[in-house]
């Protein structure tokens, strides 16, 4: 099997240890060629300074995390989410990011109307897409694991995300995160359907047991996901981009970040 | 909207508080007309005694939990699972249960071969189905939430379960548990597809936040699932059977079981 695409470090992997400047310098020091910053880290450093620092370090930007989160309890909340996404599109453009990763968002507080929340996501996406196209920023829809449906992501499956891609066409792709989709009985069929629309490939692993619904992800190789198998599906569909490590984990956030990056490089070489 | 079907108490709801005999007497005392015992509780009381006690109390049996769990690391393990399912079929027959609830089981220890585990489930089901048909016991396939895929259920969606129903035909139905399927973008379409094959309808609720992947379910009304909406889908598909409360919860297992049954009756009347 071929080697995985170049490693990119999602800054969430060292969320509690490092600022964006430290993560940029860490990647450069470790020979990790890509980075995917979160917007709060970009805001801390400043957008222009972030773009300059990343460029000076010679890193590519595999994605900017994150936009989306369109469902809200009222029209003002939905408008605020759209405005925030317009800012995120500008930021992704300034950072020359491969894509803006867009998440579903959860049910509005107190709501049990899941189809309604999904409609809000649809309408929010429609509202920001012209700006994304004008800026040349690809929107990468990232379905999250169904266990996050209530409070983080009403975008639950690859099939659902691809229905949106089909509807909206140009400028909308998929962020394929093995952690969120590995369980899907339709995985192989939907990855094939995605084809060239796969705009990002994220890795981490499913631990047994998993003790937290959000922050207990594992380093590739430490869990049960057949990551090379899913990568092969993505490559068969036409993906040949970076392999981004996004590891949200209270355990890994307590580790020395130098060790995290060393382990990440080994995991990338041997378990992805 | 119509009232829900008659309430049945899955004994897992009072797992830590009550024996099967106590649960039977509790249902009778509270005017709960149905029960769904777990096999370990039946084994403690004895099969013949369990059947007699349930019959004497005038309860119907909405299901027996649980069979399935066919994936195993080696042929001996798979054979043992099949043998155990043959015993479960005999027990379901003796208890005059509406169905035997059948779960997927997780990945064999150390395995990352999810398609392989799903094939093991398929083959195990094929092996026990003739005995189920001969005994007149309906196999109710219960897809569990994808967050249980690694260690409990490689049967992850209604669509996947219905593909098996389509393949195997007579004697195989669905146990529709709102907790496990509420997030599914294909829910309405797949419930309609299930039609008369819905053999059981289980309720509990998704809490926000959820703090445990297995044992943090909520009483109907305490979470975000639109339970009446899903019941309406099931009824539109032709289901008119019991409404079974299956609440696995470390929190509720600490409560006075008399209070649990009182709350269950209210939840059944107002939130299902």
What's this model, at a glance?
Chain A is an alpha/beta fold. Chain A contains 10 helices and 9 strands. Chain A has a single domain (9-271), classed as Divalent-metal-dependent TIM barrel enzymes (TIM Barrel, Alpha-Beta Barrel).
Keywords:
10 helices; alpha/beta; homodimer; TIM Barrel; nine-stranded parallel sheet; 44% helix; 272 residues; 9 strands
Structure report:
Two copies of one chain form a homodimer. The first copy, chain A, has 272 residues and is α/β, with parallel strands linked by helices. Chain A has one domain (9-271): Alpha-Beta Barrel (TIM Barrel), CATH 3.20.20. The first copy, chain A, is 44% helix and 13% strand. Chain A contains ten helices and nine strands. The longest helix of chain A has 22 residues, at 114-135. The radius of gyration of chain A is 17 Å and the shape is globular. The interface between A and B is medium-sized, with 32 and 32 residues.
Gross CATH architecture of chain A: Alpha-Beta Barrel
Strand order of the largest sheet of chain A: 3-2-1-9-8-7-6-5-4
| Percent of residues in beta strands of chain A | 5-15%
Ends apart, CA distance between termini of chain A: 11 Å
- Quaternary state, please? homodimer
CATH topology of chain A: TIM Barrel
- Low-confidence stretches of chain A are none
**Helix/strand class of chain A:** alpha/beta
Q: Give the biggest sheet of chain A.
A: 9 strands, parallel
Number of helices of chain A: 10
Overall domain count of chain A = 1
From the alpha-carbon coordinates, what is the Rg of chain A to the nearest angstrom?
17 Å
The dominant shape of chain A is globular
Based on DSSP secondary structure assignment, what is the total number of beta strands of chain A? 9
Q: Write the H/E string of chain A, N to C.
A: EHEHHEEHEHEHEHHEHEH
Helix content of chain A: 40-55%
Report the largest inter-chain contact.
A-B, 32 and 32 residues
CATH class of chain A: Alpha Beta
CATH superfamily of chain A: Divalent-metal-dependent TIM barrel enzymes
Average pLDDT rating of chain A: 98
């Amino acid at each position: 099997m071929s080697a995985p695409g170049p490693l990119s470090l999602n800054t969430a992997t060292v969320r509690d240890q490092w600022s964006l400047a430290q993560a940029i310098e860490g990647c450069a020091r470790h020979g990790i060629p890509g980075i995917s910053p979160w917007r709060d880290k970009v805001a801390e450093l400043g957008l222009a300074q972030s773009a300059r620092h990343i460029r000076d370090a010679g890193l590519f930007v595999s994605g900017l995390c994150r936009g989306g989160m369109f469902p809200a309890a009222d029209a003002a909340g939905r408008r605020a989410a759209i405005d925030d996404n317009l800012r995120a599109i500008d930021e992704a453009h300034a950072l020359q990011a491969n894509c803006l990763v867009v998440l579903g968002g959860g049910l509005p507080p107190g709501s049990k109307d899941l189809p309604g929340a999904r409609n809000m996501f649809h309408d929010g996406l429609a509202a920001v897409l012209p700006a994304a196209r004008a800026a040349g920023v690809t929107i990468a829809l990232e379905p999250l694991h169904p266990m996050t449906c209530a409070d983080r992501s009403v975008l639950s499956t690859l099939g659902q995300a691809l229905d949106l891609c089909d509807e909206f066409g140009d400028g909308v792709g998929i962020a394929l995160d093995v952690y969120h989709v590995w369980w899907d009985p339709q995985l192989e069929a939907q990855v094939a359907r995605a084809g060239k629309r796969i705009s990002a490939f994220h890795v981490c692993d499913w631990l047994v047991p998993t003790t937290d619904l959000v922050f207990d992800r594992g380093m590739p190789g430490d869990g049960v996901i057949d990551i090379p198998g899913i990568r092969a599906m993505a490559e068969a569909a036409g993906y040949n981009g970076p392999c981004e490590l996004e590891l949200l984990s209270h355990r890994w956030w307590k580790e020395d970040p130098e060790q995290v990056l060393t382990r990440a490089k080994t995991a990338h070489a041997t378990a992805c």
